[in-house]
Specification:
Blueprint lengths: L10 E4 L5 H12 L3 E6 L3 H13 L4 E5 L5 H15 L4 E4 L14 H25 L5 E5 L13 H21 L5 E7 L2 E2 L10 H6 L7 E2 H13 L7 E4 L6
Parallel strand pairs: 1-2, 1-4, 2-3, 4-5, 5-6, 6-9, 7-8
Protein name: SDR family oxidoreductase
Keywords: Oxidoreductase
Family: Belongs to the short-chain dehydrogenases/reductases (SDR) family.
Length: 247
């Protein structure tokens, strides 16, 4: 027997949903009542594990492969989610890639890859979602604390891609507000995931940059995403979940 939640009857797509923040978000949305499509690129088995977690909560789920670097797949996964789950209400743009390094070492191929996934892919998925979702839908994008504060060299390309999401989010809020569709941006700080573990070689320095002196958890980010998925009067906002990284 499933419990009642604020998202009962809603269908969500979480891109990059096979691990880390994406996986935690998919499960949290399911706990709040949503059926969830889990987007992934390479982690098929991990995505299926998330599907099983969602189904164990009494919700429907499906794993969908989509490469955000490909324009057709970045948009097409929205249609696939709607077809698989019979509707579409919530898009969580979580798929992203981080390439760090000195400015002079970044290749054109790296520039194209990061911008295609982190910016173009988010734009195309949001465009497809706006065409699919009914009035009152939600578009929630995962950005980065580095769009607010760059603590050191090496982040030029990554920060450029994440800063672009602020403009996109505000423009989406204006464009879609008449339909009651909200668009918001979540800015995580250092989060304990397999990509950036709290016991990794650079973890101490990252934790020291926060006011709380620690890494956050994927669940802490997911709780904010779930809140925004249910909120009706928050749009065009940039919300930090960063332990005071920008303080």
């Amino acid at each position: 027997m499933t419990s009642q939640g604020i998202l009962d009857g809603k269908v969500a797509l979480v891109t990059g949903g096979s691990r880390g923040i994406g996986a935690a978000t998919a499960v949290r949305l399911a706990r709040e009542g949503a059926d969830v499509a889990v987007g992934y690129v390479n982690g098929k088995e991990a995505a299926q594990d998330v599907v099983r977690e969602v189904e164990a909560l009494g919700r429907r789920a499906v794993a969908l492969r989509a490469d955000a670097a490909r324009a057709d797949e970045a948009a097409g996964v929205v249609d696939a989610a709607a077809a698989a789950l019979g509707g579409f209400d919530i898009l969580v743009n979580n798929a992203g890639v981080g390439v760090l390094g000195p400015l002079e070492t970044l290749s054109l191929a790296e520039v194209d890859r990061v911008l295609h996934i982190n910016v173009r892919g988010v734009f195309l998925a949001s465009q497809a979602a706006a065409a699919r979702m009914p009035d009152g839908g939600r578009i929630i994008t995962i950005g980065s604390c580095m769009a607010e504060r760059v603590p050191g060299p090496g982040g030029t390309l990554y920060t450029t891609s994440k800063a672009a999401l602020a403009g996109l989010t505000k423009a989406l809020a204006r464009e879609l507000g008449a339909r009651g569709i909200t668009a918001n941006l979540v800015l995580p700080g250092p989060i304990d995931t397999d990509m950036n573990p709290a016991d990794g070689p650079y973890a101490a320095g990252q934790a020291a940059l926060t006011a709380l002196g620690r890494f956050g958890t994927a669940d802490e980010v997911a709780s904010m995403v779930a809140h925004l998925a249910g909120a009706t009067y928050v749009t065009g906002a940039e919300i930090s979940v960063d332990g005071g990284h920008a303080a």
